[in-house]
Amino acid sequence: MTDSSKHASAPLRVAIVGLGPIGIGVMEALDRGIDGLVLSAVSVNHPDKHRERLTKLAKPPAILPIDALADVADIVVECAPSKLVRSIVAPFVKAGKTAVVLSVGALLENDDLIDLARQNGGQIIVPTGALIGLDAVTAAAVGEIHSVRMVTRKPVRGLAGAPYIVENKIDIDDITEPLKIFDGTAREAAKGFPANLNVAVALSLAGIGPDRTKLEIWADPALTRNTHRIDVESDSARFSMSIENIPSENPKTGRITALSVIAWLRKLHAPLRVGT
Known about the structure:
Blueprint: H1 3-8, E1 12-17, H2 21-32, E2 37-43, H3 47-55, E3 62-63, E4 75-78, H4 85-94, E5 98-101, H5 106-109, H6 112-120, E6 123-125, H7 134-142, E7 145-154, H8 156-159, H9 163-167, E8 179-185, H10 186-192, H11 198-206, E9 213-219, E10 226-234, E11 238-245, H12 255-267
Parallel strand pairs: 1-2, 1-4, 2-3, 4-5, 5-6, 7-9
Antiparallel strand pairs: 7-10, 8-9, 10-11
């Protein structure tokens, strides 16, 4: 294929489900322009709530129900509640298309979606999101990883309402010092903290799986940022990494998550790609 024919090819069409802080960030970046991509549609629960924002875009997308998106887009970016992941992802991967999944924990309960993608030539993308170092973990997993342990510390309001806290009647509202509220596996954390610990599931999928990846969760009243520390022991390297994520308007989500999706989208047609 010649360079001229590459440039003449139609842009990839992107749909977004959910217009919280992440979805809005990705939508506005696409509207400003990302090489080789066009925003074709969005799907939201309450269209009227977002209509004014959408009309201000240079090229307002169509507002469609989830089940209509695969007909008008090549890539879907899921920024929705985890219970919707299956309905968003399945039509795309069944059609041999791409689904970018941010509610990564839902993949543990819908792992047949990976087989569906394999059978139909589709692809599920889990962006780096709020966690640095996934490239290193992915590389180490080509060899042998002996252990992975992650310690997450979050402001109290970022953990409020998590099913694990509610079910175990853990009172964190009035704590005055750090409190460890969970110690277990990434799989267990995904069930107990579905809106908080997608980073742990992403780490487990990059490395040694959700049942061998160990996790501690702390509620810390002194914190204003979500912090993660990861320690990895492997036959190729021993490494540790830590990150402090500045929360978005949603205290459960870091600002860097939307930027990670935008970075991945930019890589699709970039002349230089850095990272695995």
